[in-house]
Amino acid sequence: MSGRETGAGSGPELAAAGGRSATEYRIEDLAHASGATVRTIRAYQDRGLLPTPERRGRANVYGEAHLARLLQIADLLERGYTLASIKELLEAWDAGRGLGGVLGLVAEVHGPWTDEEADRITREELDARFGGSQDDEAIAEAVELGVLERVPGKPDEFLVPSPQELAVAVELHAAGVPLLAISGHLKELRGQVEHIASRFLEFTTEHVFARYLGHRPPTDSDAAEAASMVRRLRPLAQQTVDAELARAMRMFATRHLHHHLGSPESAIEGSETRPVLLPARTTQAVQDLVGADQVAAFVAAAAEREVQARTLDILASSHSIANKVDEKG
After folding, report:
1. Per-residue pLDDT at 129
2. Domain boundary among 96, 131, 162
3. Which domain holds residue 189?
4. Residue 192 lies in a domain
5. Where are the alpha helices (DSSP H) in the chain?
6. What CATH number did the domain enclosing 48 receive?
7. Structurally, how many domains does the chain consist of?
8. Is residue 183 included in any domain, yes or no?
9. For 82-126, how does the pLDDT look when each residue is reduced to its tens digit (9 = 90+)?
10. Is the entire prediction scored with pTM above 0.85?
11. Is residue 2 part of a domain?
12. pLDDT tens-digit series, residues 29-50
């Protein structure tokens, strides 16, 4: 077949068919209307993703159903679906099971997971916020990390997906942290946060979403219920991380303070503090007993008491030995 099929008119046209009007397309016109290429349309036909077109003489004639299907495929591809999974969804839809719930679930998952809105910033404004320094290497690192995104056609303007994240970097730099150290820390933090997100999704999938998504593709009602559950659970991950981060920061900040400054008692005596590693179960037991903010003080007091007790034992033992020596003498 030649690259340009003939026999279906010179463009989209209304044709009477059985008393009904319908828009008809040649393959080139369908490609133009959908944004797909002729080659892609034919590939979709070969894979069974598109309904069979009507054959008129030597030409294939496409309709609105083909255009709608191509737009659906493009949307699902943008959302990360493979052609194989898209075929399963479309086959379910063709079988009368519906796609509304599935697409609603997809939209819910792909929707924003934060209320924060992206912003724009010029290179001049960016340099000013970082003390007037012009660091091309740091800019390139920020773009690679996605903290900044280049605006096509505007080399001196950037999109800022998370203004809060940029504000943190500004404050850290103002406090004396080098830009490349900030980006290095972000890389490490991102890996840890992605692990937390992955574990949260595995946990909720196992205990919540398995009953909705246990069969492929899910029914329309199951997908709709799963989408509703996503809306309910979406804020829980951040709330949990916020609470645990606050707890951990309080605990470790206390330890760091005692490590670098020492307890008031040791400061008076002029002694130096040193970090000691304790088993996690011991630390947890102490925390349950006295609270997270008193763990370091409790351990220090307990250790000091033990040292004093052993010192008394040694002194008493030494005195006893000395008396026995005197008696023998």
Report:
1. 93
2. 96
3. 119-252
4. yes
5. 27-34, 38-46, 64-78, 83-94, 100-110, 123-129, 136-145, 163-174, 179-204, 210-213, 220-261, 264-269, 280-290, 295-328
6. 1.10.1660.10
7. 3
8. yes
9. 888 788 777 766 665 555 666 666 666 766 677 788 899 999 999
10. no
11. no
12. 999 999 999 999 999 988 888 8
